Amino acid sequence: MNLLRITIGLACSYFVFAILLNSVGTVILQAINSFDITKTQASVLEGYKDLSIAVFSFAVASFIPRVGYKFAMLVALGAVTLICLVVPSIAQFYVFKLLFAVIGCSFAIMKISVYSVIGQVTNDANKHSALLNTIEGIFMVGVLSGYWVFSSFIGSGNNSGASWLNVYYLLAGLVGIAFISVLFSPIQSPQKETLPSSQWRAFLDMLALAYKPLVLIFIISAFLYVLIEQGVGTWLPTFNNQVLKLPVDVSIQLASIFAGALAIGRLVAGQLLRFIGWYSLLIGCLIAMAGLVLLVLPLTHNIDGSQVKSVFDVPFAAYMLPLIGFFMAPLYPLLNSVMLSALAAHQQAAMTGLIVVFSALGGTTGSILTGFIFDRFSGQHAFYLTLVPICLLLASVTLFKKMTLDVSVKQVKQ
User: Fold this and answer.
1) Among 82, 92, 351, 390, which lies 20 to 30 A Cα-Cα from 281?
2) Concatenated DSSP letters for 288-346?
3) What is the pLDDT of residue 42?
4) What does pTM read for this prediction?
């Protein structure tokens, strides 16, 4: 019963953060329409979210166990509830910068706490993996739900007014429900004797880990992956609206296919890995991603979907582009798994901190770079740009494979 109550608290929290974190693409589109700003200006919202996650993860990772996971989660949820209530009453672009900064800082707290609590309440690897996959599965449900929640408040026109901001009252209510579920969850604080003797030492160990060649090439690979994912995911609603000329609500709903493709891709990859090696799967996925970009983007020229009324009427090319998420899906979890497995157990917490930080930096870079190219050239040019990090990933993943083999050989000899 206690495990169920804890799982509900963690799942509710991850669900609402999935909606908020992945709303940045929708908010960018609406900010362009509602506040008459450029795509380059709007793209900074991704930076406010991801850089907040990166900086705050560095700042609080070793401090959270000392104040308690439950207290930390309640603070994060309380802060997000308050900012969601503030947004509709101000209705200015700068408040969205504050919104995503608060969301980013709060998610840094939440992710560290949730992963730590899962380790507390499970006593073997299989149970840990099962609970973690359940929570991450709920996260993907939240991502999918978010597109439809926002589109229902926006309507079928371009809606340059501010009435769509009322969605944040609903979101504040959902975050409030998560707050209550965590409040009544029997989440325990870690034992004092298990905490590191020095927060500064833990921080220095994390920095020292980044100097290892294997870790460095992994960081580059993770950075490139998130650059692609956030560049595509964040700007897909705007691409649908301004390149394919689809209505705003349909543009946002159609972007949910990308999230669905990511979820399905990870489930399928889990089964395929029973039969093929991780390296072969990743190389195949990268080649398929590049092929899909080269095949689909030429089909998006001269499309006028302004008369489309629902997602069932959109042009074929509009369905195809989000499917890049299916091939993209296995990359990130597989890279993380291989990297963590190559390290000693006592180094994995520090490695997790580095993953969070450089993933956030990659997301910011991808969104800003895509927005800049989109603004100066076109949406097609911006999405063709993904071919560059895809090619770089082919090289970095190959090098990563070779280095993990070298590490395995050394461990066997020792």
Assistant:
1) 351
2) HHHHHHHHHGGGGTT---TT--SGGGS-HHHHHGGGHHHHHTTHHHHHHHHHHHTS-GG
3) 85
4) 0.75
